[in-house]
Amino acid sequence: MENRFIAVAGAALVIVGGIAGCSSSPPTAPRQPGTLPPGTAQLTINGKDAGPTHAVNCSQVDWTWIIDAGDKAAGATAVVEGGGALTAKSVEIRNLDGFSGTYWDGNGGKADASIVGDTWMITGTVDGFTTDNPKPATATFEVKANC
Known about the structure:
It contains 1 helix and 10 strands; from the N terminus they run αββββββββββ. By secondary structure, it is mainly β. Strands 1, 2, 3, 4, 5, 6, 7, 8, 9 and 10 form a 10-stranded antiparallel sheet that branches. The longest helix has 21 residues, at 2-22. The radius of gyration is 25 Å and the shape is globular.
């Protein structure tokens, strides 16, 4: 009787182990090139990467998205309008590598917006100034965010 119990218990363990081995979740698909993991933003000014940040927040009102990355001391805020082609309406750069500036649609500078996978990408030029030389300056920028 004891041998039957051990044999049944052993068979049950083999079956449970086999089911557990077959029920593993499928591997996640690799991210598309240039995209970021969820909850991450990456800011670049004049080709210099300010590094990734997890201080990223996105909100939506109707067809307008607001993408905040970084904080009030150093970061970026972009406003993008959808409902057709994506249009960057404004971009504010705050103290990235000593540069602060803004872009407003139709008021100098240039900005383009797109989405690759789940990552927002806003690129262009902004007018502003640097902290070490407060004369007018122009800088290139890239804001990437996966909210």
